[in-house]
């Protein structure tokens, strides 16, 4: 429980942080010009998973609630895309996003209303149980969801049909879709930054640190937690929507509890006490998992070893360790 009391904060002052963030954004924009299609594809996956990590960390890092069921909202967004493509013949990415966000908001609002009445392990078990209900439905209702075979999703049109990819040209699709994801990723980062540094975000941290004192100050604890849960679910649902066109297939696996575990893993990998931790964790985890799967059939064991070493050696995650290193080498530059 001690780990959950750290205050998520940037490792550097805001102006200095912007001086770092802008060059990184420019570098990300230049990736397709010097990286091959496969590397660009992996980075796009990483940015998408980082969006899910940002949403998850609003609960874990800023609200102090550990969820084991975020696969439910990721899967809701993904299946919204699959159903629209399969049953309605919709090919617009913007329509996918609108519908996916709406359904993710509904599911997260209902699940959040049930879960935020409890905290600690009870909250985690409830989120896990509810996500497994959706997984069971997706697996058993195979005449609707395709069961374990899943539903295939063709490449969508982008920017209101201005860019279409009905035929070949996969590298071209990856390049343009990468920029599409990158723009949404930047928007999500900016919005989340404003949320966590707003009075609402400060209230969440106050509730996390001392729920009783926050209630005495007049904060409606359950309402604040529910809103945080809703925002977190919408972020994760958006990640699910963006993930489907790259994968081309939606299966019940993304609703299963190990996928929720991966979201927890990447957040711990990057560091949940820092705003940028889930971003770094999402990108690093994507490449780590990809190369682990390609290297050995026992990749789950490899990732498990990485997690154990991470907890023992880098309890604050990659970003937290870098911040501590900067603080030791250049104390005047540490926050």
Automatic annotation (TrEMBL):
<feature type="transmembrane region" description="Helical">
    <location>
        <begin position="226"/>
        <end position="244"/>
    </location>
</feature>
<feature type="transmembrane region" description="Helical">
    <location>
        <begin position="177"/>
        <end position="196"/>
    </location>
</feature>
<feature type="transmembrane region" description="Helical">
    <location>
        <begin position="121"/>
        <end position="144"/>
    </location>
</feature>
<feature type="transmembrane region" description="Helical">
    <location>
        <begin position="264"/>
        <end position="288"/>
    </location>
</feature>
<dbReference type="GO" id="GO:0005886">
    <property type="term" value="C:plasma membrane"/>
</dbReference>
<dbReference type="InterPro" id="IPR043428">
    <property type="entry name" value="LivM-like"/>
</dbReference>
<feature type="transmembrane region" description="Helical">
    <location>
        <begin position="95"/>
        <end position="114"/>
    </location>
</feature>
<dbReference type="InterPro" id="IPR001851">
    <property type="entry name" value="ABC_transp_permease"/>
</dbReference>
<dbReference type="Pfam" id="PF02653">
    <property type="entry name" value="BPD_transp_2"/>
</dbReference>
<keyword id="KW-0472">Membrane</keyword>
<keyword id="KW-0812">Transmembrane</keyword>
<feature type="transmembrane region" description="Helical">
    <location>
        <begin position="300"/>
        <end position="326"/>
    </location>
</feature>
<keyword id="KW-1133">Transmembrane helix</keyword>
<keyword id="KW-1003">Cell membrane</keyword>
<feature type="transmembrane region" description="Helical">
    <location>
        <begin position="15"/>
        <end position="35"/>
    </location>
</feature>
<feature type="transmembrane region" description="Helical">
    <location>
        <begin position="41"/>
        <end position="60"/>
    </location>
</feature>
<dbReference type="GO" id="GO:0015658">
    <property type="term" value="F:branched-chain amino acid transmembrane transporter activity"/>
</dbReference>
<protein>
    <submittedName>
        <fullName>Branched-chain amino acid ABC transporter permease</fullName>
    </submittedName>
</protein>
């Amino acid at each position: 429980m001690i780990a959950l009391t750290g205050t998520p904060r940037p490792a550097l002052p805001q102006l200095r942080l912007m001086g770092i963030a802008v060059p990184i954004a420019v570098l990300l924009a230049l990736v397709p010009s010097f990286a091959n299609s496969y590397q660009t594809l992996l980075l796009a996956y990483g940015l998408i998973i980082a969006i899910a990590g940002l949403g998850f960390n609003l609960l874990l890092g800023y609200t102090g609630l550990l969820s084991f069921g975020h696969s439910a909202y990721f899967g809701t967004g993904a299946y919204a895309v699959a159903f629209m493509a399969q049953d309605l013949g919709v090919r617009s990415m913007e329509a996918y996003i609108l519908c996916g966000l709406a359904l993710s908001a509904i599911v997260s609002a209902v699940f959040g209303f049930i879960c935020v009445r409890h905290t600690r392990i009870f909250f985690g078990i409830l989120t896990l149980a509810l996500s497994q209900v959706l997984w069971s439905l997706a697996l058993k209702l195979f005449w609707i969801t395709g069961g374990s075979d899943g539903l295939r999703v063709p490449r969508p049109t982008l920017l209101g049909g201005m860019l279409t990819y009905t035929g070949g040209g996969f590298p071209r699709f990856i390049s343009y879709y990468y920029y599409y994801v990158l723009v949404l990723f930047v928007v999500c980062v900016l919005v989340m930054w404003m949320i966590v540094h707003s009075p609402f975000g400060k209230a969440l941290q106050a509730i996390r640190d001392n729920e009783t004192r926050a209630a005495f100050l007049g904060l409606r604890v359950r309402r604040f937690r529910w809103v945080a849960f809703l925002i977190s679910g919408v972020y994760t649902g958006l990640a699910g929507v963006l993930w489907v066109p790259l994968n081309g297939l939606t299966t019940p696996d993304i609703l299963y509890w190990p996928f929720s575990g991966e979201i927890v893993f990447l957040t711990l990998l990057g560091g949940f006490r820092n705003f940028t931790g889930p971003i770094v964790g999402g990108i690093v985890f994507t490449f780590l998992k990809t190369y682990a799967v390609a290297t050995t059939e026992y990749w789950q064991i490899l990732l498990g070893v990485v997690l154990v070493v991470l907890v023992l050696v880098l309890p604050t995650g990659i970003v937290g360790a870098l911040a501590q290193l900067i603080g030791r080498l250049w104390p005047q530059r540490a926050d």
